[in-house]
Batch of 3 targets.
Target 1
Amino acid sequence: MKDHISREEALELLRKYNKEPFHIRHGLTVEGVMRWYAGELGYGDDKDFWGIVGLLHDIDFEKYPQEHCLKAPELLREAGVGEDIIHGVVSHGYDLTVDVKPEHEMEKVLYATDELTGLIGAVALMHPSKSVMDMKVKSVRKKFKNLNFAAGCDREVIQAGAEMMGVELDELFDKTIQAMQSCEAAVDAEMKDLGLEE
């Protein structure tokens, strides 16, 4: 697997179709999470590729919410993005908007962690620190069970993603917390550099 687009070009492309700071932050966070998992799972040489898929995964969500993962291939192809990245991006909409199944381990990780980063981020906002640095698995587990909390985060997708990856939910929670801890400071700094602090 190799990228056909630089990280700078990918960020520019994300920002072309996404203006909301929340969506940019989510893209940057998922990028960092994907890079961490690449290293953790023995794909360190591919961490830039994994990160770019994470950065671009919601490229069409803000502008085309009704066509999420359906519009993405067109936007990405126009920008000269390779089919391997496009498949990775589209597969996270499996069984929701598309029938493109996550096949590569990278795609399974994206599928499992995308919604979960949103849930963990929402739990962090409840903490005095507003940070994931002091996050515990039990806090996430408790909020996961409360379906009224961060109701937009699809628990069934998170559960199905854990099964795809062959891990228990608590392990997925723990690793994704670690992944978010690894990139929180960098995401905050980049949001500031972009003038997009919420």
Note: Residues 7-190 form one domain.
Target 2
Amino acid sequence: MRRSPFLLILLVVLGAIAVGLLGLGAFPPAVTPQPVERSLPNERFTTGR
């Protein structure tokens, strides 16, 4: 029996997605470290009343 071209294309696309996900899982991209910046409260202008 001959399969329709749509199913063949769908299988090829799903296979490429699976291979891509496996590749990302095996070799994850490098993350560049960035410093953590926190906003500190400015207590100089607040009144303690």
Note: The chain has one helix and no strands.
Target 3
Amino acid sequence: MKQFKKSAKLANVLYDIRGPIMEAAQRMEEEGQKIIKLNIGNLAVFGFDAPEEVQQDMIRNLPGSAGYSDSKGIFAARKAVMHETQKQGIAGVTLDDIYLGNGASELIAMATNALLNDGDEMLLPAPDYPLWTAVTSLSGGKPVHYLCDEDNGWMPNLDDIRAKISPRTKGIVVINPNNPTGALYSDELLKSIVAIAREHHLVIFADEVYDKVLYDHAKHTAIGSLSTDVLTLTFNSLSKSYRSCGYRAGWLVVSGDKKRAEDYIEGLNMLSNMRLCANVPGQWAIQTALGGYQSINDLVGDGGRLRRQRDLAYELITAIPGVSCVKPSAALYMFPKLDPKIYPIEDDRQFFLELLKETKVMLVQGTGFNWATPDHFRIVFLPHEEDLREAIHRIAKFLELYRLRSSETES
């Protein structure tokens, strides 16, 4: 019998956040086992509810949401995004420069497909949010990863960026605040990246989904606010700051020198029209979310739940022998390192699959974020404090047994 096989375009696509380890966890849950999930930033699952007024606006507008909207999105939501860009200092943004999508993910895929030809290169951070590498490959492009330096607080290495630019490089992705490391970039660093993009005629793709999830009174600067000449595409959504992952409400803002990008923008418009429109009920949540009370500040401020859980997870994970971590300044994650001398891991996916089976704690291995060596993993610190303590306690016991077995093998 003829076999039907997946497209060859998927050969280099990786999304281990929902990969084999999650599939194994689902099988365990079907058997009745309780899994503590530290693998995905799904806030509502852990009791971080969407703001009440956002929910109510969606409910009130639901009767009128059965039809298609404008392909770029409803007027009120796009107007709210435009006002948000003005607050951020991004110059020259009009309603026509704003696209609403089914979360930022759909718009990332759309913008990448509209730009890349086969063999074109995209500069991506390592580690990265793996969607970026996946959509670059699916678009026919070649992902080229630049190093973020753990010894420098996970800041992008500017020399490495410059060294990896070729005649085929079309754009550079900047994830700030960063997923998976929780790093927040300084204005000085962002200005340097803008200067590199200007010099080499690159499009900046700015993933700023966590721009309001900031700790220790940190401030975020939108990279689009730092130039009026460098073409910049900024992506954001309600998923994280407004705890509304399932509403699938995101937006893309085009800024900078749009005159030189008229043909590219035509491509964005074509793809936007082809998908007809984004989820209309979710669009109604945007204006209320952006213009209403910013309850995220209560969660990340002194004494806030996210702030407490970040501090707790950092304290507990760094207390484990051979585990180090850069304390995150933003987002919902940390990216600890396992000392390879103490934990000589060859296959980190298999290692964390074994950890899942023995501890019932689900994590994602570092190579799932396009980190080259099997010595890191990502922790999501969203579960309630009791579950977070229990999960990291189980991780610590597993690592203790691993160290014991390794020492016995050596002797």
Note: The longest strand covers residues 142-149.
